[in-house]
Design goal:
The chain is 39% helix and 20% strand. It has helices at residues 64-77, 106-113, 123-136, 156-159, 165-169, 179-193, 244-252, 258-267, 270-275, 281-286, 290-314, 324-329, 331-340, 350-354, 375-391; strands at 5-11, 16-22, 29-36, 43-48, 51-57, 84-91, 102-103, 141-146, 200-206, 210-216, 219-223, 319-323, 367-370. The protein starts with a strand and ends in a 6-residue tail after the last helix. A hairpin with a 6-residue loop joins strand 3 (29-36) and strand 4 (43-48). The chain folds into two domains: 5-146, 2-Layer Sandwich (Nucleotidyltransferase, domain 5); 195-370, ATPase, nucleotide binding domain (Nucleotidyltransferase, domain 5, 2-Layer Sandwich). Strands 5-4-3-2-1-6-8-7 form an eight-stranded mixed sheet, sandwiched between helices. Strands 11-10-9-12-13 form a five-stranded mixed sheet, with helices on both faces. It is built from 15 helices and 13 strands. The chain is of the alpha/beta class.
Length: 397
């Protein structure tokens, strides 16, 4: 008899990540995979440990629905559907109400759909994944685990904008994102650094989206993303923080529509806009074009500035952590950021940085670490916790 299993899904606009865990003990990982290239020539890859068990590519551009159905079909044929008791979904925005893993009923889904304008690159795709998984795995509990939840306990001064109180009461607040990643890193710091979790730590989640989070003993006290996933340093195609007057200028002086401004800020800005070449870090690092070099300079400068700001929020700095695609793999970017933070007491160990070491700083007051993140594991823990609560008779929201 197959042991009970959990499936985790992270459905986005350009990729789909999935994993299968045993729903027992410490939730051992059994399968991990992803479908990349949704905008052209999708490719499904899956591994059991280090063994590749699937590597399928097809031509053309597939919508998320088709990719999900193809992935679910492969999971069925490969036997991973057997024993499935829960499906966990990364949901980017939980608003004010959703702070714990939550069963995704029709009523809950309606409330989450209302938040889609606050995370247009992610929320609609997250929720579409829920809808299709509900139809394909009707006997499994569908569970949402929320990116915003990790930041919900921040002090009010970190969440409030200087806006009229009626807007604040309606929920115009700094929510913060990438919470699943930060949750995982906080746990990893507790395991590796002890119960203090690295003390005053700043985690740099550097992927296609970019944010930083200040942790005090593993708890979020401030983060760079706010009401939406636009705030903070420049990202792959997102602008990052800018003067609100720029938006007013685009709307009034330039006569752009709201839809056109939204597209500009989410899809045509950031590293892509600055470089005029690409939002891909590898492409920019390989380029000799002046605007590509300048885009990277702005990227590093703005991240270093945010580190200074978050250090002030923490009252000092003990640990600097790099994670996500760029943070884990782009040693040159890590080096440039650490070098700009020498004033804080962190100094680069160049050999460790290029050699794949966990600690990339020289001995001193501040440690710089590289820790791979694992959002899927956090999702799986959330599903397991909710299933356990239900088994104990606590149904939750």
């Amino acid at each position: 008899m197959t042991a009970p299993r959990l499936l985790t899904l992270n459905a986005g606009s350009s990729s789909l990540k999935f994993a299968v865990y045993d729903a027992t003990g410490d939730l051992p990982l059994r399968l991990s995979g992803q479908v990349s290239g949704l905008h052209g020539n999708p490719r499904l890859q899956a591994r059991v440990g280090l063994e590749v068990v699937a590597d399928e590519a097809w031509t053309g551009t597939d919508a998320l629905d088709a990719v999900l159905q193809r992935t679910f079909g492969w999971l069925d044929r490969a036997g991973w559907r057997e024993g499935l008791v829960g499906v966990g979904h990364r949901i980017v925005h939980g608003g004010l109400d959703f702070r714990e893993p939550t069963a995704l009923s029709a009523a809950v889904m309606g409330r989450l759909e209302a938040l889609a304008p606050l995370a247009p690159l992610h929320q609609p795709f997250n929720l579409r994944g829920v809808a299709l998984a509900t139809g394909h795995f009707p006997d499994a509990l569908q569970v949402g685990v929320f990116d915003t939840a990790f930041h919900a306990g921040q002090p009010a001064v970190a969440r409030l904008y200087a806006l009229p109180r009626d807007l604040i009461d309606e929920g115009v607040l700094a929510y913060g994102f990438h919470g699943l990643s930060y949750d995982y890193i906080a746990g990893a710091l507790r395991k590796q650094e002890g119960p203090e979790a690295g003390g005053r730590a700043i985690v740099l989640h550097l992927g296609s989206g970019v944010s930083l989070c200040a942790l005090a003993r593993g708890q979020s006290v401030a983060t760079t993303m706010g009401f939406s996933a636009l705030e903070g340093p420049p990202m792959s195609t997102r602008s990052g923080s800018l003067d609100p007057g720029v938006v007013l200028h685009l709307l009034h002086a330039k006569g752009m529509s709201v839809e056109a401004v939204t597209d500009l800020l989410y899809h045509r800005s950031g590293l892509l806009g600055l470089s005029g070449l690409s939002g891909d870090m590898l492409t920019l690092l390989a380029s000799d074009l002046p605007h590509a070099r300048q885009a990277l300079e702005v990227y590093v400068y703005r991240i270093a500035r945010e580190i200074g700001s978050l250090s002030a929020a923490l009252g000092g700095l003990d640990t600097l952590v790099f994670t996500a695609g760029v943070g884990e793999n782009a040693d040159l970017i890590r080096a440039r950021i650490v070098e700009q933070c020498a004033w804080l007491g962190v100094h680069l160990d160049a050999q460790a940085n290029t050699g794949g070491a966990r600690q990339i700083s020289l001995p001193g007051r501040v440690k710089a670490l590289v820790i791979p993140t694992d959002e899927q594991a956090v999702i799986a823990r959330g599903v397991a916790a909710l299933l356990a609560d239900r088994a104990d008779g606590q149904t939750g929201p």
